[in-house]
Amino acid sequence: MLFSELGLGPDVLRAIEDKGYTQPTPIQEQAIPCVLQRRDVLGCAQTGTGKTASFTLPMIDILASGRARARMPRSLILEPTRELAAQVSESFETYGKYHKLSMALLIGGETFTEQVKKLDRGVDVLIATPGRLIDLFERGNIMLNDIKVFVIDEADRMLDMGFIPDIERIVSKLPKNRQTLFFSATMPPEIRRLADAFLTQPLEISVAPPASPAETVTQALALVHEMDKRKALRHLLQTEDVKNAFIFCNRKRDIAVLQKSLERHGFNVGALHGDMVQSKRTETLERFKQGEITLLVCSDVAARGIDVQGLSHVFNFDVPLTPDDYVHRIGRTGRAGKQGRAFMLATPDDTKLVGAITRLIKREIPMIAIDGLETAEFGEEDSSSRGRGRGRGGRGAKPEARSEGRPPRGGREERAPREEAAPREERAAREERPAREERPMREDRPVREERQPRESLAAAESRRSNEPRRDRDRDRRRRRDDDDDDVPVIGFGDHMPAFMLRSARPRPSSEASTDPSQEG
């Protein structure tokens, strides 16, 4: 089937032809006619199958007629991340270039001023993240009572990020008479309940098993020790024909560490995670798409919906904590029918996580060996991860796991080995003793001498007054001799200054004057 057979308008078909597409994907083939019929749609398809175009193309035709009023958008598309929202806006610009539809992008990390100005002029298509949309709604800058088409994209990711309460609040502000399009890569029970609450008699479209990786992606698993993961990654980057690649980590702090490590070894690498300011995130992603950056170490913020043409490789430096994230991560490569390769580095501590992934995708991931590195085995204790909170023996281990292999501290189990170590003669002597020696009864015990009552203060004074007089006089003399303050000091005592010891010459009698009246 061709795009021209789906019922799209000539302007949209011309934009598709300019893009170089002729045949729709399975999800596009089934969803586009239903959206054009103004029916609610519940779409579930694996990542990389063109879900974005399956609702943007018919929305352009639906909104082609009509005009938006100030602060009252005509359609609303909710996205879980800023990168996804920006990518959907690019799709509208690409496919709607022959239309005069106005569009606004409401995401965090940008100033409110420009966004409010666009809303005041009126927008046909509003693309937003839930948090920023609620902020503007509470400020009175937007009204949602004129929404004709409402789209929830990547609904399972919304669930993972905790946006469901915000979405329920937004839906309560929308008009009842609207068209709702609900798209998700997986369909867990929670998403199914939300779809039943938001949609009215939807047409359910499922073109692939939920959470199944694309057949165009070649998967491989390398099982190494924790301390060898960086070396294993560098070996893969050097031996594989890597044009560009995403390298996924579970924690943001590990992203910076791995980026610096790869830079020291001469790789052209950048970083992308949720703590970066929006301007830096946009700049980094754009440089990666333009080929200025070859490797991008990132968190799961880049695992959903980001489309990079011709991405050759995906490396899972950390095994994802949830199996669905594995499918989304490797779905960044092998898109649009092209071939891609995905590698995952696992340690013995990741046994359960890898098992959950294989159960979800219903296949075993082929294992490979890294030249020059010892291949670990699942289930063994990875001693290299001790002290970092991973595996048994680390800070995150259970108390019983940390004490494994150590002798117990105290208790009955500890006394038995000590008895076995005692000499045989002592053990035999103890066995001959009665199990419990009879202790004497209370009346058989020797009676302790009764303590004499304490001497009163008056009796003590009387006793001291009757002591021999010579003892009291001796004490008084000792105290008097020790007290130097009562001894008078005449003159300089024994410490006479030297100048006082010199003899003075007698004054001549002629110079002496005894008459006071003759003194000058």
UniProtKB/TrEMBL annotation:
<dbReference type="InterPro" id="IPR050079">
    <property type="entry name" value="DEAD_box_RNA_helicase"/>
</dbReference>
<feature type="region of interest" description="Disordered">
    <location>
        <begin position="378"/>
        <end position="520"/>
    </location>
</feature>
<dbReference type="GO" id="GO:0003676">
    <property type="term" value="F:nucleic acid binding"/>
</dbReference>
<feature type="compositionally biased region" description="Low complexity">
    <location>
        <begin position="502"/>
        <end position="513"/>
    </location>
</feature>
<dbReference type="GO" id="GO:0009266">
    <property type="term" value="P:response to temperature stimulus"/>
</dbReference>
<dbReference type="InterPro" id="IPR014014">
    <property type="entry name" value="RNA_helicase_DEAD_Q_motif"/>
</dbReference>
<dbReference type="GO" id="GO:0042255">
    <property type="term" value="P:ribosome assembly"/>
</dbReference>
<dbReference type="GO" id="GO:0003724">
    <property type="term" value="F:RNA helicase activity"/>
</dbReference>
<dbReference type="InterPro" id="IPR044742">
    <property type="entry name" value="DEAD/DEAH_RhlB"/>
</dbReference>
<keyword id="KW-0547">Nucleotide-binding</keyword>
<feature type="short sequence motif" description="Q motif">
    <location>
        <begin position="1"/>
        <end position="29"/>
    </location>
</feature>
<keyword id="KW-0378">Hydrolase</keyword>
<feature type="domain" description="Helicase C-terminal">
    <location>
        <begin position="216"/>
        <end position="381"/>
    </location>
</feature>
<dbReference type="InterPro" id="IPR001650">
    <property type="entry name" value="Helicase_C-like"/>
</dbReference>
<dbReference type="InterPro" id="IPR000629">
    <property type="entry name" value="RNA-helicase_DEAD-box_CS"/>
</dbReference>
<dbReference type="InterPro" id="IPR014001">
    <property type="entry name" value="Helicase_ATP-bd"/>
</dbReference>
<dbReference type="Pfam" id="PF00271">
    <property type="entry name" value="Helicase_C"/>
</dbReference>
<comment type="similarity">
    <text>Belongs to the DEAD box helicase family.</text>
</comment>
<keyword id="KW-0347">Helicase</keyword>
<dbReference type="GO" id="GO:0005524">
    <property type="term" value="F:ATP binding"/>
</dbReference>
<dbReference type="GO" id="GO:0005829">
    <property type="term" value="C:cytosol"/>
</dbReference>
<feature type="compositionally biased region" description="Basic and acidic residues">
    <location>
        <begin position="461"/>
        <end position="474"/>
    </location>
</feature>
<dbReference type="GO" id="GO:0016787">
    <property type="term" value="F:hydrolase activity"/>
</dbReference>
<keyword id="KW-0067">ATP-binding</keyword>
<keyword id="KW-0963">Cytoplasm</keyword>
<dbReference type="Pfam" id="PF00270">
    <property type="entry name" value="DEAD"/>
</dbReference>
<dbReference type="InterPro" id="IPR027417">
    <property type="entry name" value="P-loop_NTPase"/>
</dbReference>
<protein>
    <recommendedName>
        <fullName>DEAD-box ATP-dependent RNA helicase RhpA</fullName>
        <ecNumber>3.6.4.13</ecNumber>
    </recommendedName>
</protein>
<feature type="domain" description="Helicase ATP-binding">
    <location>
        <begin position="32"/>
        <end position="205"/>
    </location>
</feature>
<feature type="domain" description="DEAD-box RNA helicase Q">
    <location>
        <begin position="1"/>
        <end position="29"/>
    </location>
</feature>
<dbReference type="InterPro" id="IPR011545">
    <property type="entry name" value="DEAD/DEAH_box_helicase_dom"/>
</dbReference>
<feature type="compositionally biased region" description="Basic and acidic residues">
    <location>
        <begin position="397"/>
        <end position="454"/>
    </location>
</feature>
